[in-house]
Design a protein that fits this description.
The complex is a heterodimer of chains A (about 325) and B (about 325). Chain A is built from eleven helices and twelve strands. Chain A is of the alpha/beta class. With about 325 residues, chain B is α/β, with parallel strands linked by helices. Chain B starts with 5 loop residues before the first strand and ends in a 14-residue tail after the last strand. The chains are: A alpha/beta (about 325), B alpha/beta (about 325). Chains A and B meet through helix 7, helix 8, helix 9 and helix 10 of A and helix 7, helix 8, helix 9, helix 10 and helix 11 of B.
Chain lengths: ~325, ~325
């Protein structure tokens, strides 16, 4: 039994994203950052979101929390339509949704003490009792492996990147949110520290019963923490499947090339045979039809004409491709 | 064994910092033969970039260089500014992590390549121009003639790195130093750039020093690997030997800490506890000892020297046991 089948669309969805569109204007041009993305995350599930730089994964993550205002589409959170909320109602919902960013040092105000930084969400959430705040800050710090007595009075510059990311995680968890969105939380950290933070996120997920959206460009990192994985290319989702399934039998040619391009730490590993051609086109003028077609070895006239829609190709495995890859015969379990 | 093209002997780089002297590179000795690739792997602050800069003397003003750097039999450490300038770019070329820092943003791509060719090879401008087009198409840049008129900001990160590689290769260098050449790039583009470097290296019988934090890149792209920690080479071996029979616990821990695509989701990672040491306050013994699961009493007291066994060197008092059939 793998974790793949444990959660899925039949379980209660905490987060539902429907046809979300995010666009930015640059002068007279429009950047199509997110173009009609839909997915759900079940209660207690981690959805990994992978893609290369500029594919819109960070825009998508921010739009889910309405840190970036989506152009259209809906985000349902815990039964409520987030996109319809305003002012105080939105702020009240936000305490249930927290975020951890890529650059931990830049995410912390250098002038403030660590204790105050971690307490800030409580202040915003109007937890007025000082003793109560201190208790909860201490608890969150302990949880992420920081000693409140020795770190509270210090400032971010006294800490390494890994320690700062622990502070960011403590700050995100102090309100005991339901949803944690992590945007490249380990990509600025060294290998030896990266593993510590990934393990910590897994422990925190269990301890706080978190539901997670985990955004990263590194497929191995995403696989390490995810129940399901969504692959994004140029503003659209290509494929969503259980983490095991996606890596074992990718159906979208883009996913397959992405997997093949990972350098494995094994000198005897076979070198990638099918690298994608060239580089991603600009999100200002994405290709017609399938957005991957300009780099896809399987592309034909239909791919140019017709936008492939996301469909369930196998149980729990959705793909948006006119010519999906078949299941590898030898890999069938 | 051929004649080494590059020979480093006890190279040290000491930086004067407000917190006291910092030995960024400490007694590093390495050799690299023509046509071969030596990978230097380490985490940030391990000294790998400072080592590469020591070779070309591209060091910050607060740095002191000691030891010997011999290139093609010639000592570089005492070289005057003019001979050094002739060597840089001509015989030894560098590709940096961020191509934006090595390309001039206000000059066209064409000007930058043509200038390099004119300065170093004294080519006439029409010849240099034709050569530039040739080079750009060799590094896989579509429509090279048009690219000559473009500025760096008009190209993507991958394209810029191709241009930086074209410039680096333009004078047929005998040694290419590639310092994290693909770290700023996406994984699909990274594979293309690494393929390009390997192809051009083979064609030109060029030696390459490939500096990276990524053991995956090292595994597939190098002949020999040196692992650095806290300014020192702590293990050095032919690439296959290193991955099959690593002796230094740090190398083992680094490899174990990488998330693997073939592992099941939610497999806890073998994290290395603690963090790299403060380089101005190094412990008296092995710098990795405070984080090492095999560390004994001697490790915290006495610094282990880099010892050779066959062609495999490691600096450790308690090395991981070699497998029974030690590869020769």
């Amino acid at each position: 039994m793998t974790s793949d089948s444990a959660v899925g669309s039949d379980a209660q969805a905490l987060l539902g994203v429907e046809d979300l569109v995010v666009e930015y204007a640059i002068g007279r041009l429009t950047v199509h950052a997110v173009s009609g993305v839909s997915f759900e995350i079940a209660q207690g599930e981690t959805l990994g979101l992978v893609g290369e730089s500029g594919c819109g994964k960070s825009s998508l993550a921010r739009a889910v929390l309405r840190l970036t205002e989506p152009h259209s589409g809906r985000v349902r959170f815990d039964g409520q339509d987030l996109t319809a909320l305003r002012g105080e109602d939105l702020r009240r919902m936000r305490r249930h949704m927290q975020m951890v960013f890529q650059d931990p040092i830049a995410s912390l105000n250098p002038r403030r003490r660590i204790g105050d930084i971690v307490a800030e969400p409580l202040v915003i959430a109007r937890v007025t009792d000082r003793a109560e705040r201190e208790r909860r800050v201490g608890e969150a710090m302990h949880a992420v492996g920081l000693d409140p007595d020795s770190v509270s009075a210090r400032r971010p510059h006294e800490f390494s990147g890994g320690q700062c990311q622990r502070v960011c995680i403590a700050r995100a968890l102090v309100l005991e949110p339901k949803l944690l969105v992590c945007d490249e939380p380990v990509s600025s950290l060294d290998v030896s520290i990266r593993a510590q933070i990934l393990n910590l996120l897994e422990q925190m997920k269990a301890r706080y019963g978190l539901t997670m959206l985990f955004v990263a460009h590194d497929l191995a990192v995403v696989k390490a923490v995810s129940d399901r994985v969504a692959v994004m290319y140029l503003g659209k989702l290509c494929e969503i499947a259980g983490a095991m399934e996606l890596f074992r039998a990718p159906m979208h040619p883009y996913t397959a090339t992405l997997l093949a391009a990972i350098p494995l730490p094994d000198p005897d590993a076979p070198r990638a045979r099918s690298l994608p051609i060239g580089e991603p086109p600009s999100p200002v003028s994405p290709p017609s039809g399938c957005r991957f077609r300009t780099r896809c070895p399987r592309a034909d006239a239909r791919c140019q004409r017709e936008v492939p829609v996301m469909r369930a190709a196998r149980p729990g495995h959705q793909v948006a491709c006119h010519h999906p890859l078949q299941e590898p015969r030898e890999a069938r379990s | 064994m051929g004649q080494p093209l590059l020979l480093l002997d006890a190279v040290g780089v000491q930086l004067a910092t407000p917190r006291g002297p910092l030995r960024a590179v400490d007694e590093v000795s390495l050799a690299l033969e023509p046509g071969r690739t030596l990978g230097i792997v380490g985490e940030s602050g391990s000294g790998k970039t400072m080592l590469s800069r020591a070779i070309l003397r591209l060091l910050p003003p607060n740095a002191t260089l000691t030891g010997s750097v011999r290139f093609d039999g010639r000592e570089l450490t005492g070289l005057g500014p003019e001979p050094l300038r002739r060597l840089r770019g001509r015989s030894i070329a560098v590709v940096f992590q961020d191509p934006m820092t090595s390309l001039n943003p206000v000059l066209t791509i064409g000007t930058q390549i043509v200038e390099t060719l004119q300065v170093h090879l004294e080519l006439a401008s029409a010849v240099a121009r034709a050569r530039a087009v040739e080079l750009l198409s060799a590094v896989g840049l579509p429509a090279p003639e048009q690219r000559l008129r473009q500025y760096p900001h008009q190209l993507s990160g991958g394209m810029r790195q191709r241009v930086a590689i074209a410039i680096a290769l333009s004078c047929e260098p005998r040694l290419l130093i590639a310092d994290e050449p693909t770290t700023a790039l996406d994984v699909t583009v990274q594979a293309q750039i690494l393929d390009l470097l390997a192809r051009e290296q083979q064609r030109r019988h060029m030696a390459m020093l490939l500096i990276t934090h990524d053991l995956g890149i090292v595994a597939g792209r190098t002949d020999e690997v040196a692992v650095m920690y806290a300014g020192k080479v702590v293990e050095r071996a032919p690439t296959r030997t290193l991955f099959k029979a690593m002796r230094m616990p740090y190398t083992e821990a680094l490899l174990a800490a990488i998330p693997r695509v073939d592992a099941a989701p939610h497999t806890p990672l073998a994290a290395i506890s603690g963090r790299p040491p403060d380089m101005t306050r190094l412990p008296p013994g092995c710098a990795f000892a405070p984080r090492c699961r095999y560390a004994g009493e001697r490790c915290t007291r006495e610094r282990p020297p880099l010892r050779d066994a066959f062609e495999h060197a490691f600096a450790c008092w308690n090395p991981i046991d070699a497998p029974l059939a030690e590869p020769a």
